[in-house]
């Protein structure tokens, strides 16, 4: 079911404690927002969920199993990550959608484009020249092609203009409806209120608030 | 080979006057280089003098084991120098030393196994020196390009890792790119050999009075051997270096 548990998780870099003993649960099938001021450690924490990094001490569990006991490649296919900026790694959208899913049929590819709100013609487009919003949706489609149960979203709309951001957000909200578990890093309280069910608030690496979005003061202007 | 083309010690002494001339010009023109020219000249002279003495000793007394021992020392030195190019890579000096050692062992092994070169210190030491220095250059460029790719393309590499690709698969496009870059100088110099530059081995042989036909045969062997050594060193450095770039959990360090 994809429930994450963080147990006393610490991340230390160059002698600094960037994540300071965080213990929390991420509920399956819901969207959990990870919020807090810049430098609070949100990105650092997010990267632990698909093991781009490991905690210095403490454990992250997925459905009760410590992540390091799982096959890391299988874990990453189960837990997809979409970064802050679209990073396209091939020359065409066709190839891009197949980086993690080489067997993808054309029919499936077109279905994915539709799911992220891009017209079918995009399948034959080069990746060069895509706008930020289009690129971000291609990245999302590329991640969905692998068939993840969990989506990690690191400020997925912060590099986009308001119109593109709204389009990507719509796409994401549609996906949430489909039973996907999501962890969303966001700087926008409005976005968190629109998209997330729960919120974790980090400050200087410490978990300072945790609960349903409606009850978390940081998101509701209580700072 | 008491060819008249080889300078006597008096000739060597006279060639010092060329350095004197260079120093004089540098001093008159206030280039601020006179001191450095003197130091470089003296240093090169002493180094070559010592190497000559070592070689003389090796050839006369140490035999083949001594020759191979000297080769091993060269590999270690080359590994230190090339390893410095991979700044930031874990164990970069070990990686570089291993890459140079593999390239040198395979190349020299083939040449000796097929009897292309004589298995005597007089041949093994200088030919090995060329192989080691070629491997060192290729290893150094490979490691420095590798670090540049790992730093500059971090986002792309991690994007591929996040899609469930293994470290090797996620790095493959960058590896291809960096190997091409690392081998271009060797390939280019192989292409124009004889046209633009008369390479060292051939120049040396011709100067020493050997006929160009013989010199060319030697040079062809040297060229092919350097090409093979560079390719093997670059491949080995990329392969071993890549392992240091990622953790066992397929994370980019
Ligand atoms: N390798 C590192 N060495 C030292 N400090 C680091 C390192 N990586 C990150 N940090 C520090 O850790 C802190 C948390 O970084 P992180 O990127 O997780 O913050 P964030 O909450 O995502 O911030 P933002 O909202 O600006 O994206 C920052 O102060 C950052 O400077
Ligand atoms: Mg961040």
TrEMBL record, chain A:
Q: Which keywords belong to this entry?
A: ATP-binding, Nucleotide-binding, Translocase
State the source organism's domain of life. Bacteria
Q: Which InterPro entries match?
A: AAA+_ATPase, ABC_transporter-like_ATP-bd, P-loop_NTPase
Q: Which Pfam families match?
A: ABC_tran (PF00005)
The ABC transporter domain is annotated at 4-219
GO MF: ATP binding
Task: Please name the PANTHER family in this protein's record.
Answer: ABC TRANSPORTER I FAMILY MEMBER 17
Name it. ATP-binding cassette domain-containing protein
UniProt source species: Catenulispora pinistramenti
TrEMBL record, chain B:
* Any Pfam family matching the protein: UPF0014
| Keyword field contains Ribosomal protein | no
According to the record, the segments passing through the membrane are 6-25, 37-58, 64-82, 94-117, 123-143, 192-211, 218-238
- What's the protein's topology in the membrane? Multi-pass membrane protein
Q: Where is the signal peptide?
A: none
Q: Which InterPro entries match?
A: UPF0014_fam
Q: What is its main location?
A: membrane
Protein location: Membrane
Keywords linked to the UniProt accession: Membrane, Transmembrane, Transmembrane helix
The text of the family note is: Belongs to the UPF0014 family.
Report what the protein is called: Iron export ABC transporter permease subunit FetB
């Amino acid at each position: 079911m994809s429930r994450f548990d963080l147990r006393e998780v610490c991340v230390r870099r160059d002698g600094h404690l960037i994540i300071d003993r965080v213990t929390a649960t991420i509920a399956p099938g819901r969207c959990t927002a990870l919020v807090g001021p810049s430098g609070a450690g949100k990105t650092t924490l997010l990267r632990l969920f698909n093991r781009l990094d490991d905690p210095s001490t403490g454990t992250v569990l997925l459905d009760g199993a410590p992540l390091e006991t799982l096959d890391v490649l299988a874990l990453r296919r189960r837990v997809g990550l979409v970064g802050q900026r679209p990073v396209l790694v091939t020359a065409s959208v066709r190839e891009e959608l197949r980086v993690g899913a080489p067997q993808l049929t054309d029919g499936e590819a077109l279905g994915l484009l539709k799911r992220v709100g891009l017209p079918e013609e995009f399948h034959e487009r080069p990746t060069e020249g895509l706008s930020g919003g289009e690129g971000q949706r291609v990245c999302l489609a590329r991640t969905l092609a692998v068939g993840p149960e969990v989506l990690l979203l690191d400020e997925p709309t912060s590099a986009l203009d308001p119109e593109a951001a709204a389009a990507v957000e719509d796409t994401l909200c549609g996906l949430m409806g489909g039973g996907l578990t999501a962890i969303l890093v966001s700087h926008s309280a409005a976005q968190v209120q629109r998209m997330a069910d729960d919120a974790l608030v980090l400050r200087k690496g410490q978990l300072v608030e945790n609960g349903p979005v409606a009850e978390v003061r940081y998101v509701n202007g209580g700072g | 080979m008491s060819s008249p083309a080889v300078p006597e010690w008096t000739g060597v002494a006279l060639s010092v006057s060329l350095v004197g001339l260079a120093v004089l010009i540098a001093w008159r023109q206030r280039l601020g280089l006179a001191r450095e020219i003197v130091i470089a000249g003296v240093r090169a002279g002493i180094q070559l003098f010592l190497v000559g003495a070592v070689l003389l000793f090796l050839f006369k007394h140490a035999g083949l084991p001594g020759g191979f021992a000297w080769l091993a020392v060269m590999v270690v030195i080359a590994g230190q120098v090339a390893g410095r190019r991979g700044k930031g890579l874990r164990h970069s000096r070990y990686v570089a030393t291993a890459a140079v050692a593999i390239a040198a062992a395979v190349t020299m092994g083939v040449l000796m196994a097929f009897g292309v070169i004589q298995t005597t210190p007089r041949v093994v030491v200088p030919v090995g020196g060329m192989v080691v220095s070629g491997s060192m250059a290729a290893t150094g460029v490979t490691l420095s390009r590798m670090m540049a790719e790992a730093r500059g393309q971090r986002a792309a590499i991690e994007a591929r890792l996040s899609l469930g690709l293994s470290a090797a698969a996620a790095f493959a496009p960058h590896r291809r790119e960096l190997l091409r870059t690392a081998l271009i100088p060797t390939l280019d110099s192989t292409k124009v050999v004889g046209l633009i530059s008369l390479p060292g081995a051939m120049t040396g042989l011709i100067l020493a009075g050997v006929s160009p036909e013989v010199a060319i045969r030697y040079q062809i062997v040297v060229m092919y051997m350097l090409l093979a050594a560079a390719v093997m060193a670059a491949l080995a450095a990329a392969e071993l270096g890549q392992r240091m770039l990622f953790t066992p959990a397929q994370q980019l360090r």
